[in-house]
Design a protein that fits this description.
2 strands, single chain
């Protein structure tokens, strides 16, 4: 085998090993999060927390992840994800819940995180159903 071919294979192998390490669970870069003192952002966070608490009291917010999503509250004013994720064979959730399931942050036992399909419930016009609570 020629030296350039061997060098190319070694580089490809090294990139593969580094990619596997970088993208494997638990090895993502550490986030740098700090609480902001921006009053507008603080007001939005408080309003969102109050909205979700009110929706939960009314039985309209059934989130499927450990730290309830905000996507459904912001875009739809209710959260059907817990019911939808529990449907064997047609598991769906909002983008935020699907991402959390991908990181093993779901709160419903027995659900396969890889089975969950992302839906925006027609909010962005990407799905054909075009309504907020798929049948």
């Amino acid at each position: 085998m020629k030296k350039p071919t061997v060098l190319f294979l070694i580089i490809c192998f090294g990139i593969g090993i580094l990619s596997y390490y970088y993208f494997s669970e638990g090895n993502e870069p550490e986030a740098f999060y700090s609480v902001t003192t921006n009053t507008k952002l603080e007001m939005i966070r408080n309003d969102l927390a109050e909205l979700k608490a009110d929706l939960k009291k009314k039985g309209k917010y059934n989130c499927c992840i450990k730290n309830d999503c905000s996507w459904c509250a912001i875009y739809m004013g209710h959260c059907p994800c817990e019911d939808l994720v529990s449907r064997k064979g047609s598991e769906k959730s909002c983008p935020e819940c699907a991402a959390a399931w991908n990181k093993k942050q779901g709160k419903i036992p027995g659900i396969d995180p890889d089975a969950i399909q992302v839906t925006t419930f027609g909010v962005f016009g990407l799905e054909k159903e075009g309504h907020h609570h798929p049948d």
